[in-house]
Description:
Layout: H1 3-22, E1 25-26, E2 37-41, E3 49-53, E4 58-63, E5 68-69, E6 72-73, E7 75-82, E8 88-96, E9 106-112, E10 121-127, E11 132-137, E12 145-148, E13 156-162, E14 165-171, E15 177-185, E16 192-199, E17 207-218, E18 225-235, E19 241-247, E20 251-256, E21 262-267, E22 270-275, E23 282-284, E24 297-298, E25 304-309, E26 318-323, E27 330-331, E28 338-343, E29 349-356, E30 359-366, E31 373-374, E32 382-387, E33 394-398, E34 405-409, E35 417-418, E36 425-431, E37 437-443, E38 454-462, E39 468-476, E40 492-502
Parallel strand pairs: 12-19
Antiparallel strand pairs: 1-2, 2-7, 3-4, 4-17, 5-6, 7-16, 8-13, 8-17, 9-10, 9-16, 10-11, 11-12, 13-14, 14-15, 18-19, 18-40, 20-21, 21-22, 22-23, 24-25, 25-26, 26-27, 28-29, 29-30, 30-31, 32-33, 33-34, 34-35, 36-37, 37-38, 38-39
Amino acid sequence: MSVDSRSHVAFVCLLGMLALRASGATPAPSSLGIFEADQDVGTVLHPGSARYDPAGQTYTISGSGENMWFAEDDFHFAWKKITDARDLALTADVAFIGQTGNEHRKAVLMIRQTLDANSPFVDVARHGNGLTSLQYRQTAGADTHEVESNVSGPLTVRLERRGDRFYAWVSGEDGKLEPAGAATQLPLSLPFYVGIGVCSHDKNVSETAVFSHVTLQDLLPPGKTVLYSVLETVTAVSTDRRVEYLAPAHFEAPNWSRDGSSFLFNQDGKIYRLPLNGTPPVMVPTTPADHCNNDHGISPDGGSIAISDQSGAKNLSSIFVLPIEGGTPRPITLNSPSYWHSWSPDGKTLAFTGLRDGNFDIYTIPVTGGQETRLTTAPGLDDGPEYSSDGQFIYFNSDRSGRMQIWRMKPDGSDQEQVLSDETNDWFPHISPDGKWMVFLSYDQGVTGHPPDKNVVLRLMLMSDKKVHVLATLFGGQGTINVPSWSPDSRRLAFVSYEYLPENGAMAP
């Protein structure tokens, strides 16, 4: 080869390296294992790096960046481009190097649409303080949201993509991977990127994490699945979610205790109390009422529970009241079916939905029992009555307008008016204890009734101006928020989401 030829080749190589550097990607002098390239994403003051050790099969990622939150991300990313439709799982053991640094520095397993800083993405993020969460941005430039795991500092984490659904898995004390209860839906088009990354959460420094036992596996069709129920809480202002409890079982409808220390929910006809301290749920004695459905709630003074139970004649639901710690239920309603929904603020009256003469309407009855009072008479379905915190109104959902919408009326049934009008089917209005917020459950326009296993949205309305925003999107419906579930301080709301996961993980060999 002549000198001119060698010079030309060197010049072409130099141009290639400059172009690669301009794109943000850094050439890897050695293999990056299962990944193709690495680069800084977003704005960083200190260039990051990625190094693969074939002998130890570990990846050492260093990254700077102010944050991975809100509308854009700043971090270092080692990635592989996925160009064919597939379900996959990315798994790794994650450990930070060094004990100092910002407590919210992040080491992530990520799937993102593009390498742009504002790209839609889903990740499982291990924070420096042990917090582990599923984070996601649903559209380009939108704010990031998260679902926190109730497991702190797991050694192993996994991010699964199954169609448009993404699931987080974390290891427990025994090291075994289990569902984290955190999931979201995000449609991605081909190609997209899968990889690992680090953000220092402090633009002035770099942080380093080691990813070991990293695997990227194709997933087999799920085959037999297991239903997981997930009791979550969400903060009204930030919309941040947290998994409080999950189990491979079907449970529904959390009530938040008046002192804020526990939840009630129904499962297999029984009522359970779940303390917030992480201990397992315990059954509340309600015998002989042992076919409870998801319409139950706690009295204003915190001393009693109202339940709806189907143990009686013809398995029709009736309303009972019993002590909060459990005991023999006292019957309230004489007619069935009747489904409890609310206590009046003074604790003297119960509001419920009853089926009478082929029509579902809203009724009230004294907590001591006696004569029921019918409040609605419109044809169709009126359901979900709930007193406002000041006792001035009863809010409810009704399909009298042709679509299920939120209404309200005075406690005697007068002045019935529609609260808002939108294109979705809206159910189960719940008013915050301070009276500032109303949360409700929205189904798509084409959904009839309030069935389970649907993509639904929890929406939050500010009572002062009726402005509505999305609190959470999830897979659920029936059982998600059938009953009042606000925290006593009006800051958070409890609800149940659901996941159908493969019985054995369904990994490809």
